[in-house]
């Protein structure tokens, strides 16, 4: 990747439209960009920034690339259980907040119990790398719960599906992704 597209925040050696770099992304993310919903805004507004995989964890990334945690969002895979039925869902919250799995997520999904999905299960089900899971390109039947503070953020940083690289996109675009529901107080 050698683009020098300006980014709304951060200091990156390389940034460009993610749709132009689909070969650098996991297959589900590349497919989602190819089928980008019109309601989410122009696909060229989704930027891929190059980064060192060793800096993929949120706090380390923010420090290394001069990104404020208030614009960084985490995508967390949750397993919600009711009886013998398990529903996997993705939840997106700002890095400055904490996902309310036990109340907000459990209640919204109508589950008796909800918890973070085991790493191996999350990686296998999404086709993405742990530490890079993104709301862009999730399995089509999954609920996508997005905290309202994320969609109110002009531009947010999320995973790219891989530990190398991140996506920057308008927070409001996440509300237009398949199966997305904006939830007030999904996080505390």
Percent strand equals: 15-25%
For the biggest sheet, the summary is: 5 strands, mixed
* Number of strand elements: 9
CATH class reads Alpha Beta
The separation of the N and C termini measures 37 Å
Q: What are the segments in which pLDDT stays under 50 over at least 5 consecutive residues?
A: none
Report the CATH topology name: YbaK protein
User: Strands across the major sheet, in which order?
Assistant: 5-3-4-6-9
- For the record, the CATH architecture stands as Alpha-Beta Complex
The Cα radius of gyration reads 15 Å
| Number of structural domains | 1
Shape: globular
Order of helices and strands: EHEHEEHEHEHEEE
Q: What structural category characterises the helix and strand content?
A: alpha+beta
Q: What is the count of helical runs?
A: 5
CATH superfamily: YbaK/aminoacyl-tRNA synthetase-associated domain
Estimate percent helicity: 10-25%
Mean pLDDT score, rounded?
95
Domain YbaK/aminoacyl-tRNA synthetase-associated: 55-175
Pfam families: tRNA_edit (PF04073)
Protein name: YbaK/aminoacyl-tRNA synthetase-associated domain-containing protein
InterPro entries: YbaK/aa-tRNA-synt-asso_dom_sf, YbaK/aa-tRNA-synth-assoc-dom
